[in-house]
Write a structure and sequence with these properties.
heterotrimer, A alpha/beta (425), B mainly alpha (414), C mainly alpha (300), A: 425 residues, alpha/beta, Rossmann fold, 2 domains, seven-stranded mixed sheet, four-stranded parallel sheet, 14 strands, 37% helix, C: 300 residues, mainly alpha, 11 helices, globular
């Protein structure tokens, strides 16, 4: 693990379990959760907070399909925690991170969660739509607030979700608006949208349908799954449909295949992807020569961004993790921490650092400033994405992280008027 | 690894209680058997207290029972009836979805079908539906043999993948899936509903309640399967497996016996599916065919359970489930608790890889050195413990008249 | 679907079908010689690919490719000599199960070794499409088709005229009689695994490319080998000609159903994968031993 691990007190217990049949009478009694108590500084606490520490969980992916991105997000979380602790912590307590790796598997996460839950106040990073779907009820039951590294507006009906940045549907709406603004797309056009079946792709598709509807466009949908790798036949079909742009909510490998086919088949239309569609590793693949048509719309800035805070985070990352892959994950992880910092500080002011207190603090925040790592966040209306702006980047082999920023916190009028699935009013 | 395996095998009358058979000529063996069974039952019943607040271990144990129920169903089909099937995950999916649909609250959502039946009825209904679908596949299965049947059954997994994604009104879609209704038994909910009774200071909440539910379901499955194996049904399965032509000559209706085996095996898989839904708290069709709760990986895992346990052995399937389903979850827990595989960051040895090595190697070793699997190891161990026995002696009521002593491949102590 | 799209899809499918045929032929050769279905074929593919990946920077691509093919062939041989041949007591169904265990281990190990790299190994021809009369021909597929045709022809000639071919056909026909005629069963069997491994080693050179699969060497490569399963079964597990036909059917079916063109979207995303298996199922129900397979007689 990149991150610190703490060998737990329960080493003995599990050793005992390993020799199941010998175990007999040496079980531990239940350490029932400490009742709500007033701790140091007169702050109310329940789980995950002691007089000197605040423990937050990370449920990340460092061994599954998003391991490159996942490792960078974990690192971003850790960089944030180090910064906070160096500055004296929050509420006179230091931040500790408890890391688990679920490998992007829902069943694994389901087993690891009950082990993690009693130790933590909340979750600073919960990666993966399938994992989130599986844990949805647990988060509600235990009142655990979680910042997901997964940005679908379909999950905003869960009050325990602390969305950081904007959602996939809005990324696509803004991205298409940007393409049209640049003259790459016209009203009445036919566009193709290749999407992974699931929360991630489906939510992106909502965005392109909304935008197409506003501009008299037709969307040709092509649904795929996360392990499909060869999109040649699908792009062949889209060519037959006469599309003038392609939207992707796919994995990086699928992005490469779509772009390679786009070029090989002589289609050569602009392609829009959102945050997870691009990985700098693609620049080393045989498809490298075909990536030029790709625009990436994401709620956090690319690794090479000149936004001051992003540049500072990038610098710290390269120093702390030399040789580790450079991608947008670092900023994602850092900003998750920053939002938690705002919530924790508010909860401390309120004198209530219980899980319920975190909820109260979160919904009272209307203007969280993350130094432009994402747009200004408003958590006062549950169901609505807290911010609507995106960064637009274009593939650039010369840039660190493989993309160059072409527009900062870009918010299209269509993005302002869009109503998310669980948005009220 | 050998440590773990031999340790499991060391308690051959595996997991749920095997009924002690009274055979007056073997007081010593019976004493051992009864004592071992009693210790095991006690251990299983007290498990929630032993693990205390470390509920994650209870989740691992629950998961093993899912593997055991599914594995028992498959070992009957593959081991006893000789029908190779890789379609098990499909029936798990059907079971999970059927439960969610039958018990689902009709008011829950406009997009989801829910019939609002009581959960117990829904559980039974899901099992029946799986049995019927197994019956529907039987004519196809009846035409095919051996490896052809195995590969043909793979198409059901792909069919499940496709239908799971297409029939969103039933499955909830791959996007978010749907939440299976809480199981209830005569008004007693298997959830965290207050007040929780306590047992030796441990609150009996959702996970503890689920453990006891699973334990009962697994025990019923185990006893039913043992009963089937030792009855006429079991003999007809083995007759068909060993020689179809001879079975026909002996008056066995081969087509019906094969279909019956498929129905029963599918029903077990359906129950395992309902348990999976309750375990995950989620019914969600897979996004792809290689990872997920109902994928090809699960096909292979179930087959490994059956091979490791010994083809056709019911207790063996339980041991196999502990090896295949248990180890991976256990390694994952270890990885996170004690930092095992700590340098596994980029392409190192991690829990998933290690457990695959262990069960892959176990499959290879079993075929090479002990085709009878854990069941055969158990048989030999027991024989050694009670030297007075002549291992090959026929046992009362167990041998077919006029034939050589029959072994049903099932009882490790037989 | 317009004609241009149909032609393009057909061409895409044909090129892939050639590779599926190579893989299916591997299954068939082993099955004919030993009646064992080799579930570890996918991991032989990975072994070959991994060696190419590991060596191509030092040896250069052509030499690395050659070593890769040899390695896959040797892996097949070692698997047979080291494991299967030592499990004499086990029947061919148990041996098939044994190969599953081997497959799980090799696959996990190689997937772990290539790690996050997912290397592409078709350097000389990958991503260099050829335009021909309005149709795009992917160079990888074109070369695969030619290489496949040459190898398959060579195989058929060897099968018909060489001593090994005669011995193998005799063994497939009747093992005991062949042994009585002085044919050394172990040698025939070992050669079959060697040849099947080599074919897997050749196939992977085309599989782990942008053109063919859109993905480098990894779990996905292993998955493609599984698609060759229906190809082999469709044609009939003991028919070499069937493997070729099966491979082409699978390639074209997959291409036509995965394009998501106007009349298909209602079938949903997974239909192209299911389609291949459903076609196989239909064939099996009509002909339980595949299109060209030999009917099994039940003897009393």
């Amino acid at each position: 693990m990149i991150l610190r691990r703490r060998a737990g007190r329960s080493a003995t217990l599990a050793a005992a379990l390993a020799s199941t049949l010998v175990l007999a009478a040496c079980g531990s009694t239940a350490d029932t959760p400490a009742d709500t108590a007033a701790g140091a500084g007169g702050v109310k606490t329940d789980k995950g907070v002691t007089d000197t520490t605040i423990t937050l969980g990370i449920m990340g992916d460092t061994s599954g399909v998003f391991k490159n991105l996942g490792a960078a997000i974990n690192a971003g979380n850790q960089l944030w925690a180090d910064d906070v602790n160096a500055a004296g912590g929050i509420c006179d307590r230091t931040i500790q991170l408890e890391v688990v790796d679920h490998g992007y598997k829902a069943d694994t996460a389901k087993t690891l969660y009950p082990q993690l839950e009693p130790k933590i106040l909340g979750i600073v990073q919960l990666l993966g739509s399938p994992v989130l779907a599986a844990l949805k009820q647990n988060l509600i039951d235990d009142n655990v607030t979680a910042a997901p590294a997964s940005w679908s507006s379909e999950i905003l009906n869960n009050p325990n979700i602390m969305m950081i940045g904007t959602t996939y549907d809005l990324e696509v709406i803004n991205g298409l608006a940007y393409l049209q603004q640049e003259g790459l797309l016209a009203d009445g056009a036919t566009i193709g949208h290749i999407y992974i079946d699931g929360e991630y792709g489906g939510n992106g598709l909502k965005g392109s349908k909304y935008y197409a509807d506003k501009h008299g466009m037709t969307v040709k949908e092509a649904k795929i799954t996360s392990t499909d790798t060869d999109l040649t036949n699908i792009v062949t079909g889209l060519r037959g449909d006469g599309v003038t742009a392609i939207v992707l909510t796919t994995t990086p490998g699928q992005t490469a295949s779509a772009l390679a086919a786009n070029q090989a088949l002589g289609l050569n239309v602009p392609v829009l992807g959102n945050n997870p569609t691009f990985d700098p590793a693609l620049l080393q693949s045989p498809a490298a020569g075909a990536l030029g048509n790709l625009y990436v719309a994401a709620s956090s800035p690319p690794f090479s961004s000149q936004t001051p805070k992003a540049a500072a985070v990038a610098k710290a990352y390269k120093e702390a993790y030399p040789g580790a892959p450079l991608n947008a994950g670092t900023n994602v992880g850092y900003v998750e921490g920053l939002v938690w910092q705002n919530v924790l500080t508010k909860a401390c002011e309120n004198g209530d650092m219980t899980r319920a207190g975190i909820q109260t603090a979160l919904t009272s925040l209307t203007a969280v400033d993350t130094e432009d790592l994402v747009g200004e966040l408003d958590y006062s209306s549950p169901g609505a994405p807290p911010t609507r702006g995106v960064y637009i980047a274009k593939v650039d082999p010369a840039a660190e992280g493989g993309v160059t920023e072409v527009a900062t916190v870009f918010t299209a009028p269509e993005a302002e008027s869009y109503k998310a699935p669980f948005q009220e009013g | 690894m050998s440590e773990v395996v031999s340790e499991k095998v060391g308690s051959p009358p595996a997991a749920p209680p095997a009924e002690p058979r009274a055979t007056a000529s073997r007081p010593r063996r019976n004493r051992i058997k009864i004592a071992a069974t009693a210790v095991l039952v006690l251990f299983l019943v007290l498990l929630p207290i032993l693990v205390g607040s470390e509920v994650a271990y209870l989740k691992v144990a629950q998961y093993i029972l899912i593997g055991a129920v599914g594995g028992i169903g498959l070992t009957l089909l593959v081991g006893q009836a000789g029908q190779l099937s890789l379609a098990h995950p499909f029936f798990l999916l059907v079971g999970a979805v059927s439960y969610a649909v039958l018990a689902g609250d009709p008011e829950e959502s406009d997009d989801l079908v829910g019939l609002g039946l009581p959960p117990l009825l829904a559980l039974v209904g899901a099992i029946v539906i799986c049995g019927l679908i197994g019956l529907a596949f039987a004519p196809v299965a009846g035409r095919l043999r051996g490896i052809y049947l195995g590969v043909a059954s793979l198409s059901l997994v792909f069919l499940g993948l496709w239908l799971g994604q297409s029939l969103e009104a039933f499955t909830g879609g791959t996007s978010s899936g749907r939440t299976p209704p809480t199981f209830e038994l005569f008004g007693f909910p298997f959830s965290n509903a207050e007040p929780s009774p306590t047992l030796f200071g441990v609150a009996i909440e959702k996970q503890q309640r689920l453990w006891y539910l699973f334990l009962v379901l697994a025990a019923i499955s185990y006893l039913l399967a043992r009963g089937a194996v030792n009855s006429r049904i079991g003999r007809s399965w083995r007759a068909v497996r060993d020689n179809e032509a001879a079975a026909t000559a002996m008056g066995v209706n081969v087509t019906r016996v094969k279909a019956g085996a498929f129905v029963i095996s599918s029903a077990f898989a359906g129950l395992a599916g309902v348990m999976t839904a309750l375990w995950l708290d989620l019914v969600k069709p897979d996004e792809n065919e290689f990872t997920g709760s109902y994928s090809l990986t699960v096909s292979i895992a179930f087959l490994a359970i059956v091979i490791i346990g010994g083809l056709g052995s019911v207790p063996g399937a339980v041991v196999g489930a502990a090896v295949v389903f248990g180890l991976q979850q256990f390694f994952l827990l270890g990885a996170n608790e004690f930092g095992w595989f700590a340098d596994a960051e980029f392409g190192g040895l991690n829990a998933v890889v290690l457990s695959a090595f262990v069960y892959g190697a176990a499959v290879v070793l079993v075929v090479l050195f002990e085709p009878g699997g854990a069941a055969a190891v158990g048989r030999r161990l027991v024989a050694r413990l009670s030297p007075s026995d002549i291992p090959s002696a026929p046992r009362g009521g167990r041998s077919t008249p006029g034939s050589e002593p029959e072994r049903n491949d099932d009882d490790p102590t037989a | 679907m317009d004609l241009a799209t149909f032609v393009q899809l057909f061409v895409n499918g044909l090129g892939k079908g050639a590779v599926y045929a190579l893989l299916a032929l591997g299954f068939v050769i082993i099955f004919k010689a030993t009646e064992v279905v080799n579930f570890a074929h996918g991991s032989l593919v990975l072994v070959g690919g991994y060696v190419v990946y590991a060596l191509k920077d030092t040896l250069g691509w052509p030499a690395a490719a050659l070593v890769g093919i040899v390695s896959a062939a040797l892996a097949g041989l070692i698997l047979e000599r080291g494991l299967l041949a030592n499990a004499r007591s086990a029947d061919h169904n148990s041996l098939a199960l044994l190969t599953i265990g081997v497959d799980v281990i090799i696959t996990e190990e190689i997937v772990r070794r290539v790690g996050a790299d997912i290397p592409f190994i078709g350097d000389p021809y990958d991503s260099q499409p050829i335009q021909l009369a309005g149709v795009t021909i992917f160079r990888t597929q074109a070369i695969a088709l030619v290489v496949g045709a040459v190898l398959i022809t060579a195989f058929f000639l060897a099968f018909r005229f060489s001593n090994w071919g005669v011995a193998m056909r005799a063994q497939a026909e009747n093992k005991e009689a062949a042994a009585l005629m002085g044919i050394r069963s172990s040698r025939v069997t070992a050669t079959a695994w060697l040849v099947a491994g080599a074919l897997a080693g050749v196939a992977v050179l085309f599989m782990a490319t942008q053109d063919f699969s859109g993905a480098g060497l990894g779990r996905g490569t292993h998955a493609i080998a599984l698609i060759a399963f229906p190809a082999a079964i469709l044609g009939g597990l003991d028919s070499t000609a069937g493997a070729i036909v099966g491979g082409l059917i699978v390639g074209v079916t997959e291409a036509l159903t995965s394009a998501n063109v106007d009349f298909l979207p209602f079938l949903g995303p997974e239909f192209s994968k299911s389609a291949v298996f459903l076609v196989m199922l239909v064939v099996l129900v009509i002909r339980p031993s595949g299109l060209f397979g030999t009917k099994e007689l039940s003897r009393v």
